[in-house]
Amino acid sequence: MKDSENNLSEIEIQNQKIIDNKELNLYEALIPVIILMAMLAYNIFFADGELLGEYSNQFILLMGGVIASVVGFSNKVSLKIMIIEIWENLKSVFVPIMILFLVGALAGTWLVSGIIPAMVYYGLQVLSPGIFLPASVVIAAIISVATGSSWTTSATVGIALVGIGTALGIPTGMIAGAVISGAYFGDKMSPLSDTTNLAPAMAGTDLFTHIRYMALTTVPTITITIIVFSIISLTIDTSGTADISGLLNTIKSTFNITPYLFIVPLAVIGLIVTKTKPLIALGIGVLLAAVFAFIFQPEILSSLATSNFRAIVNAVFVDTEIVTDNVKLNELFSAGGMKGMLWTIFLICCAMVFGGTMDAIGALAKITKELLKLATSIFGLFFSTVVSCIGLNAIASDQYLAIVIPGKMFKKAFEDRGLAPENLSRTLEDSGTVTSALIPWNTCGAYQSGVLGVPVADYAVYAVFNWLSPITTLVFAAFKIKIRQLATNKFKVEKPTVGW
Question: Which whole number is the average pLDDT over 454-469?
């Protein structure tokens, strides 16, 4: 979920017309996708992500957009239409980009003010390696349900949990997977979440019917996720327990650690719970952290720059490193400020260029329509919807489009099968919302990776809730479990054996 700040862009994207190009056939629509996936796979698996330098994935996405435009030109799509769609896509991520800049500033100021070190300091004393991973899932889930935002959850408690887990010697991929699993549980179930409101709007049901019906697949999935992380916690070999006292002493001697520092993160979470716009809430978080840095960490500031004010400015905009006598903490106590978010922002912009071009030439509509043809049974309908949502997360690189386009395309098919609209809304969330964080060039995958500092490839397998959710919804469909039908259902043959 991208945050409630995006409500305007959600309304715009919900009402946008899906471009259909009768000149385009399926094979032509797939050409840019196949070439893009091949280049990305080669870059990741054979070139170690350095095929075209540090910004390889960004260049590859732009090349994919060029290929899509060539296909469009050959099928009578004008350059003007492509530019308009690309611009609309770029406009839709303006607020997320601003949020990313603020998250970078937040990370820098929360470091120099001692907020992150305080979280690590107290967290090390409470969260032992044996319970850390399942506890991280639960903590992230609670914050995300309260705020309605997986993005805010990752930018606040997520960063702290990665810091604590790293100090305990737990692999960062596992920590990020646990945080993202919990964050996206809240993203799906919170009535404050934008995607939780968007999905029922697209399917034609109401918010709370959608949430109650979605709980049938979501609760078992999060339960399995917590069990999996509990088992992992029993098997991992951590090096943190032996030297926790040394870490605590180093943190205490470097920073002025006090519970008063928690006022800032609690204030930010409180602002978001009370529906303050994320840009305002995060901006206040940066300003409060700067004030607390002057009050509680003057020695840190004076060691970083010629003046305390200059140290704060550097923390907001550029790299900041606080050196201690512990190598593990040196890596932890560093932040990139707004500058550190540029790689992620460039990736999002390039993904929007590719997704906008694919939409403009009619490729997204063509691919989705072909998937709809595979829906010859109720299970086939659910399967086609899931594949469509996941595919659009990869192709369009945008979570909203992965909900909106299948929602529009499959709505009538669900009605024709005698299925209640909450079946569609649940499937859109089970497959569209959560899988966005598993794709590196999707806006959500790029965001989570950038904020937590963990590559998607490292956390994807551990984001159990995210990849298990679409599987759960397909299992329910295959065995006709809790498949609600319309009151006037004519399809008695495929009536579910277990009603809801």
Answer: 96
CA-closest candidate to residue 425, choices 243, 213, 281: 213
Name the token pair of 229. Answer: 């992380």
Record the pTM.
0.77
Cα dihedral value 339, 343, 349, 354, nearest 10: 170
Are 358 and 37 in contact, with CB atoms under 8 Å apart? no
User: Distance from CA of residue 52 to its chain's centroid?
Assistant: 26
**Is 397:441 a contact under the CB 8 Å cutoff?**
yes
Residue ranges of E strands in 160-212: none
pLDDT band (50, 70, 90) for residue 243: low
Q: How far apart are CA 36 and CA 59, in angstroms?
A: 11
CA angle 25, 31, 35 (to 5 degrees): 170
Q: Which two tokens stand for residue 314?
A: 């550097």
Position with higher pLDDT, 326 vs 185: 185
265-269, 355-359, 369-373, 450-454: least confident range: 369-373
Calpha distance 432→439 (Å, rounded) = 12
> Who's near 182: CB < 8 A, 6+ residues apart?
136, 137, 138, 139, 140, 141, 142, 144, 153, 222, 465
Which amino acid, one-letter code, is at 345? I
Alpha carbons 361 and 207: distance in angstroms, whole number: 33
Question: Do 168 and 125 meet the contact criterion of CB atoms below 8 Å apart?
Answer: no
CA distance 329 to 255: 12
**C-beta separation of 431 from 470 below 8 A:** yes
pLDDT digits (tens, 9 = 90+) for 59-112: 888 999 999 999 999 988 899 999 998 998 888 778 878 887 988 898 889 889
Question: Domain coordinates of the chain in residue numbers?
Answer: 4-94+352-494, 96-341
